[in-house]
C-alpha cells in the first residue's frame, strides 16, 4: 500500500488531486469511481 501511495502521489495526484476528487472534465474523479478497482 505504501508503494502505491508513493506512486499515486508522484504521478497521479497532480491531476486527480490528493484525495482522488479529480478536476473535471479533464481529469475525472478516481474516488468513488465504479470503474476503478476497489
Keywords:
38 residues, mainly alpha, 39% helix
Describe the structure.
This protein has 38 residues and is mostly helical. The chain has one domain (1-38). 39% of the residues lie in helices and 0% in strands. The longest helix is centred in the N-terminal third of the chain and has 15 residues, at 2-16. The protein is flat and about 30 Å long. The mean pLDDT is 93.
Q: Which shape, going by the Cα principal axes?
A: flat
The beta-strand count equals: 0
Number of helices: 1
Describe the main β-sheet briefly.
Answer: none
> Domains counted in the coordinates: how many?
1
> Strand share of the residues?
under 5%
> Which class of secondary structure composition applies to the elements?
mainly alpha
Pfam families: Cytochrom_C
Protein name: Cytochrome c domain-containing protein
InterPro entries: Cyt_c-like_dom (IPR009056), Cyt_c-like_dom_sf (IPR036909)
GO molecular function, one term: electron transfer activity
Q: What's the layout of helices and strands?
A:
Layout: H1 2-16
Describe the structure concisely.
By secondary structure, the chain is an all-alpha fold.
Amino acid at each position: 500500500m505504501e508503494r502505491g501511495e508513493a506512486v499515486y502521489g508522484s504521478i497521479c495526484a497532480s491531476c486527480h488531486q490528493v484525495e482522488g476528487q479529480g478536476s473535471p472534465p479533464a481529469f475525472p474523479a478516481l474516488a468513488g469511481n465504479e470503474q476503478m478497482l476497489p
